[in-house]
Amino acid sequence: MKVSVIVPMFNVENYVEQCLDSLSRQTLRDMEVILVDDGCTDNTPLIADKYVTKYPERFRMVHKKNGGLSDARNYGISYAKGQYLAFLDSDDWVEPPLYEKLSAQMDQGCDVCLTDIEYYFEDPSKRYVMKGLSSWPAETMQKKALLSPMFAWNKMYKAEFFRRDGWRYPLHTWYEDTPVSAPVLATAKNIGYLPECLIHYRQREGSIMADTSSPRLVEIFGVMMMLRTAFHRLGLYEQYYDELEYLHVEHLRLYGMFRFLRSSQW
Q: Phi and psi dihedrals of 15, rounded to 5?
């Protein structure tokens, strides 16, 4: 199996069909999609089961008690058979050639490959593209990647990072992508970039990223500490000190400021 795509699902009955349609239309044939039912209480598993029945060679579904996004991703990793891993949130969707194009780059010797993202709003005038690789100058591709978006799902990875090296997403916290994405990028020998926008990142009310009032916003401080600890453990803290400082400024000040300014509590 070349590619495993892990899709955590929790109560997304209004969006999951578009996500799964897009995965059923992928031009890459040698891939599997692992649907993780994270204790859904709506019709999401019933919708997903239709795809498992119709496309049994591509989709399979596993069930677990609700544990959150990280727990669902980690659970899916344990079932993945692919040489390469990718993640997709169940309210987003992708264009048909995405995983074929990413895996072709991986076949050229990449350990990780990044790609661009469309921030999708219902209002077309608000939509925009975020580059998956920063335009900031950097000494190495690893440092350039660390100045880029830390999302888990706009990347394809060698499965060895998760099987051999044991990377898993931290439980019971928001901002879970960064403590894995950053050290994986720092330890990758070869990083590729697909400069195309084939992922649609849905912006919707009620999502974690849209929440500006939750007390859980402060969890970013603990996540940043996890990040520093991981780089110390890998012996890479001094080498990537400037990039870590950039990530702190970006997450604690830039993104945090925008959220807090939009919050009715402030």
A: -125, -25
Instruction: Return the bridge partners of 133, or none.
Output: none
Cβ contacts of 89 within 8 Å, gap of 6 or more: 7, 8, 19, 69, 153, 201
Determine whether 29 is exposed, middle or buried from the number of CB atoms within 10 Å of its CB (0-12, 13-18, 19+): exposed
> How far apart are the C-alpha atoms of 23 and 28, rounded to whole Å?
10
Encode pLDDT of 186-239 as tens digits: 999 999 999 999 999 999 765 444 445 565 667 778 888 999 999 999 999 999
Cβ pair 144, 134 in contact under 8 A: yes
CA distances to 37, 88, 124, 148, 188 from 10, rounded to whole Å, are 7, 13, 26, 28, 31
Distance (Å, whole) CA 183 – CA 82: 21
Please answer whether residues 152 and 200 qualify as being in contact, where contact means their C-beta atoms are separated by less than 8 angstroms: no
Q: Are 135 and 232 in contact (CB under 8 A)?
A: no
Cα separation values, 40 from 29, 158, 199, Å: 29, 29, 24
Q: What are phi and psi of 17, to 5 degrees?
A: -65, -40
In DSSP terms, 31 is beta-bridged to: 3
In the Cβ-directed half-sphere of 63, how many Cα atoms lie within 13 Å?
A: 8
> Which one, of 43, 134, 26, lies nearest residue 88 by Cα?
26
Residue closest to 151 by CA, chosen among 225, 84, 206, 69: 69
Interior angle at CA 56, CA 51 and CA 57, nearest 5: 125
Q: Check residue 255 and give its pLDDT.
A: 53
